[in-house]
Amino acid sequence: MSIWTDLTGVDFRLGHVNAGGIRTRALQAGAGEAVVFLHGTSGHLEAFVRNIPAHVAAGYACHAIDMIGHGYTTGPDYPYRIPRYVEHVLAYLDACGIDRAHFVGESLGGWVAGRLAADHPDRVSRLTLVAPGGTVANPEVMERIRTSTRRAVESDDIAFTRKRLELLMYDPAESVSDELVAVRHAIYHQPEFVKALPNLLCLQEMDNRLEDLLSPEQMARIGAPTLIVWGAENPFGDVPEAHALHRSIPGSTLEIFPECGHWPQHEHADRFNALHLEFLRGGQS
Fold first, then answer.
1. Residue 203, H or E segment
2. Which among 204, 203, 257, 269 is positioned nearest to 228, based on CA atoms?
3. Is 262 a known active-site residue?
């Protein structure tokens, strides 16, 4: 299935927003309460194309953005630490006139959204963390992310880009299309992206990661109703990590998807969309 097939029937705008001086690529669609979608490390807004139509149909204004140094968003020359990501997302909200939004953060995006919810509770209505990072520092996982990403960026061989995407999935044959590989390969081989790669991977360095981890105190301060979605076969975090996160965020709900890797919103889009829309309507808290 094509990205454009996924978006069939949806009126959307794909363009750039000046977010605090950072030229930020955003896909915007729908009207109503704002839902902001944040992708993972070395990812891009296409991670959510299977979710946008259902949310637009349910009456939400969707904003899927490329975070700093990712996708086709400007990559400033400084390490992309969590406070920088949060600052950028807040600047995007301000540029779009959004006072308060629902957030869906996958992997790195969940880490950013969690920190934003802890530090800026007035800007977050409901929070959905999809296989989020940022609660542990596992050297093996960090090395896997660093090595697989560097190999895909530094080689022209598109097979390495495919392997980087397949790493995320329980069933790569079903979930990794040729088009998705081509989109990511083109992003990875922009000169600006290659130049910014050390900044983008800085959270895979132990000192940086430990300093930026979501602390128990920060997680305890998250007051927004929170839904955690985790894949039972997540290659970047075992299920006990999800349960620990659930215990740390007061009143949160945990859903574990079987036969699912690191992209529940993509691999099991129909289930995720139904679950998330029920959550947004107040069906879970």
1. none
2. 257
3. yes
3-280 belongs to CATH 3.40.50.410: no
pTM of the predicted model over 0.90:
yes
Four-residue CA torsion sign, 22, 11, 103, 138: negative
Q: What tokens does 137 get?
A: 């520092």
pLDDT tens digits, one per residue of 81-131 = 999 999 999 999 999 999 999 999 999 999 999 999 999 999 999 999 999
Query: Which entry of 44, 63, 185, 262 is annotated as an active-site residue?
Result: 262
Beta bridge partners of 148: none
Per residue in 165-201, pLDDT (tens digit) is 999 999 999 999 999 999 999 999 999 999 999 999 9
Partnered with residue 37 across adjacent β-strands are 64, 104
- Share the mean pLDDT of the chain: 96
CA angle 107, 109, 111 (to 5 degrees): 75
Comparing C-alpha atoms, which of 269, 24, 248, 260 is closest to residue 114?
248
> Percentage of the chain surpassing pLDDT 70?
99
d(CA 157, CA 172): 18
SS3 45: helix
Q: Where are the domains of the chain?
A: 3-280
Q: Tell me the C-alpha distance between 254 and 131, whole Å.
A: 11
